[in-house]
Design a protein that fits this description.
heterodimer, A: about 170 residues, B: alpha/beta, three-stranded parallel beta sheet
Chain lengths: ~170, ~140
């Protein structure tokens, strides 16, 4: 007596239409997997990088905020100012080269007023010059302080402009 | 080629414009270092390279006074042909000196607006009718 197979192969009864549907499901599954893995990863990476650059810009804004606060409060030693500007300028140059390469709409020299105009405003200031050699904290007159406030009012938007452009970039 | 650096030939801490407001001023750097080295380079027909890097930083007035006096004493043509500025750490300074300071001081030279000195210096070199002459060209203003 011969043995008979008790199992029925389900694919035996598959029509062409069934096969097409099955392939369609498989393709969709692979596509979904690829989207999640590749595109989502790409978006996440972009976001992480944007957040990193935005934080760096915020940090520089804070450095300037502290610098200007110290000027208003007469807590700035004249001889510290020039080295401070050199260090922050190198930091900004490094950052802005990367940002302008990554996000084409951002000008590498966008923070130029803070890097150069502000330094000139301080080091050419009459109070600063008169008290430079004293090695003590500089007492700025009301006129000088007003100049610093005007500078800040005029250029404070620059940091937000960069942050918005980074955030809006493709 | 003659090469000098502000750090090695002058100071790690360059300060402000004139000698009467700060030590290590641009005026002092010009009279102690820059005038003589450009005179040497000019006589030998060599290029002078001035390296601005590795100091503690600059005020624009220091550089303006030092390189501006060069233009006043040697003319814009000679300075442009004979000087190479290196400023990798702060490229802004090279731009400022070459595009602003040089032009402003050449204009000043043509208008005979003498440079200000705030202390007595030894004789220094100036080109007059293409001849190098050494003398004390300016004196501090009497207070």
């Amino acid at each position: 007596m011969g043995t008979s197979c008790c199992c029925i192969n389900p694919f035996d009864s598959f029509t062409n239409a069934n096969w097409i549907a099955l392939v369609g499901i498989a393709v969709n599954a692979i596509l979904a997997f690829w989207i999640v893995r590749t595109i989502q990863n790409k978006l996440t990476n972009k976001r992480v990088l944007k957040d990193h650059f935005i934080n760096e810009v915020k940090e520089i804004r804070n450095d300037y905020k502290n610098c200007l606060n110290n000027l208003y409060l007469n807590q700035t030693n004249a001889k510290i100012v020039i080295p401070w500007f050199k260090l922050i300028n190198i930091k900004i140059d490094d950052l802005m080269i990367l940002i302008s390469q990554k996000y084409k709409k951002i000008d590498q020299k966008a923070l130029n007023p803070y890097q150069n105009e502000l330094r000139e405003l301080i080091t050419e200031n009459e109070d600063f010059i008169k008290q430079y050699e004293s090695g003590k904290q500089v007492n700025f007159s009301e006129i000088s302080r007003n100049q610093f406030i005007k500078f800040q009012q005029k250029h404070n938007h620059l940091f937000n402009d960069i942050i918005i452009k980074i955030n809006d970039a493709e | 080629m003659i090469t000098i650096s502000v750090l090695e030939n002058f100071s790690e801490f360059p300060a402000l414009r004139h000698c009467n407001i700060s030590d290590n001023s641009g005026e002092e750097f010009y009279h102690k270092v820059l005038n003589k080295v450009l005179k040497d380079a000019y006589e030998k027909g060599e290029k002078l390279t001035v390296n601005l890097d590795n100091t503690a930083g600059y005020a624009s007035s220091f550089l303006d006074e030092a390189f501006g006096n060069l233009v006043y004493d040697f003319t814009l043509d000679v300075v442009k042909k004979n000087i190479e500025i290196i400023s990798y750490q702060e490229p802004h300074w090279k731009d400022m000196i070459e595009n602003q300071t040089y032009m402003q001081w050449e204009k000043r030279r043509k208008n005979n607006q003498n440079p200000k000195v705030t202390k007595n210096h030894e004789a220094w070199f100036r080109l007059e009718n293409n001849q190098l002459k050494s003398k004390i060209w300016e004196h501090p203003a009497a207070v």
